[in-house]
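Q: I'm building a small set of examples for a reading group on sequence design. Run inverse folding on the following structure and report the sequence directly after it, with nothing in between.
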């Protein structure tokens, strides 16, 4: 699966292991710009969820940032589902804090991908608390991300199907 992603996509929001990042970097065609990636972080520590543990994040981020076929852009997290707005905000606050720590360590991150539609308001409030003047832009970004994610998912399924049907075909042009 990594080859298809490396050859046909511009962004991956779910890199959680160095092995996956290395594959994506190695498989990124030389004629394409580096693949934009976000590291997936398991902020709630759920055993059933993928994502790097917060304590492992700095080492992973530094290793991924050094890979030539990738451009580390930020962090992504899907916190444990809950109806409690305070718990939702805490998960987003944790991700924001980790993001700020990585930036302080010298990594040029510019992207936070937080949560799902069920905790949209908590994500917006977290961002608003950090930079209220960016609230409208953040809401648009979150909504755009959801639409973008749906489009990418459909496109990925189509491309995966085509790649399986025609394994020797060259990648489609952009």
């Amino acid at each position: 699966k990594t080859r298809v992603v490396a050859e046909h996509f511009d962004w991956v929001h779910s890199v959680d292991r160095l092995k996956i990042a290395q594959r994506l970097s190695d498989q990124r065609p030389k004629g394409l710009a580096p693949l934009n990636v976000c590291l997936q972080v398991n902020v709630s520590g759920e055993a059933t969820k993928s994502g790097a543990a917060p304590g492992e994040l700095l080492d992973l981020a530094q290793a991924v940032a050094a890979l030539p076929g990738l451009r580390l852009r930020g962090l992504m997290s899907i916190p444990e589902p809950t109806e409690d707005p305070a718990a939702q905000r805490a998960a987003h606050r944790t991700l924001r804090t980790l993001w700020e720590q990585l930036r302080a360590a010298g990594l040029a991150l510019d992207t936070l991908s937080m949560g799902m539609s069920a905790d949209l308001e908590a994500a917006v409030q977290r961002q608003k608390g950090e930079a209220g003047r960016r609230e409208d832009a953040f809401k648009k970004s979150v909504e755009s991300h959801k639409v973008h994610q749906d489009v990418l998912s459909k496109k990925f399924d189509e491309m995966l199907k085509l790649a399986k049907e025609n394994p020797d075909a060259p990648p489609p042009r952009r």
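The mean pLDDT is 79.
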